[in-house]
């Protein structure tokens, strides 16, 4: 469906995207993660033909986004982080205009606009001027524009920005529904959102792809070791003696628990080792009751920080060069008809 090969984007001496390659398959929802300045928005803008790459190629359904721009763009619906809205149009006028630009057959426009306004929950705003809408509703209008024409690929850059919690849940449901018939690429800083709706996750750092897998696969990849947390009624020295007598434990720590007369033991083993049963019986033999025993697994947030933490710290301290230069390049381009 989408093939990105050796993609490079330079802004002067700054490399925003650094020889990036990946492939997007049909019928899945992909999450695109990375710290600020990692190159996510730049990559999306190149994939949609909004800006040109310095090197490399992007093909959509076999069409090169630079050499066959019109054919490639017909396959894509795009919601940029700042939706390209005409503030002095009503919602219906804007969507009608967008439908004309997308060359949706005239006899289908009214029905399709009606369906998509219902999907994005903006039907009751159709006669309102866009400039009078809240940020959340403007975001929905941008999403409706992206869905118009029912393109095979829908690319969403921070689609829930400005929405309240109820609206976020509704938009997540809509994204899942879109994933049944479309390939969806979702960029978001909300890790729980990506984990909740995405089939595959790609993590980018310093313009390079550092991981690509299912949420479960990423967790398994990073969890080379298994960890257990046990709350045990007894003295630290007694518990430590039992733990030292067990095989398969690679590391451990013991500290006071929040419960009286208890200790908390955190044990590390190889991922394939499961010592819960032998640990339980060994403690029971010494009359040391186990009050709680649970596995500790890395969350997507832990994995994200581990893979991009160094890059995030560096980029937080430096000016966001990518965005500053990009904004200058795109100044006055929010109303460019090619974005619709």
First and last CA, distance: 20 Å
Task: Give the radius of gyration.
Answer: 25 Å
Question: How many domain units?
Answer: 2
Kindly name the structural category: alpha/beta
Compute the number of strand runs: 14
- The best one-word shape is elongated
Reading side by side through the largest sheet, how are the strands ordered? 6-7-8-3-9-10
Approximate strand percentage: 25-35%
Mean pLDDT, to the nearest integer, reads 84
Order of helices and strands: EEEHEEHEHHHEHEHEEHEHEEHEHH
CATH structural fold name of the largest domain: Rossmann fold
The portion of residues assigned to helices is 25-40%
Q: How is the main sheet built? A: 6 strands, mixed
- CATH class annotation of the largest domain: Alpha Beta
CATH superfamily of the largest domain: P-loop containing nucleotide triphosphate hydrolases
